[in-house]
Amino acid sequence: MSAKIFIDGEHGTTGLQIRERLAGRTDIELMSIPQAERRNAALREAMLRDADIAILCLPDDAAREAVALAAGAGTRFIDASTAHRTHPDWVFGFAELEAGQAARIASAQFVSNPGCYSTGAIALLAPLVKAGLLPADYPVTINAVSGYSGGGKQMIAQMENPDADDAIRANHFAYALGLAHKHVPEIVSRAGLARRPIFTPAVGRFAQGMLVNVPLHLDLMTGAPTLVAIHATLEGHYSGQDIVEVVSLEAGTALPRIDAEEMRGTDRMKLYVLGTEGKGQANLIASLDNLGKGASGAAVQNLNLMIGG
Question: Is 34 strand, coil or helix?
Answer without folding.
Answer: coil
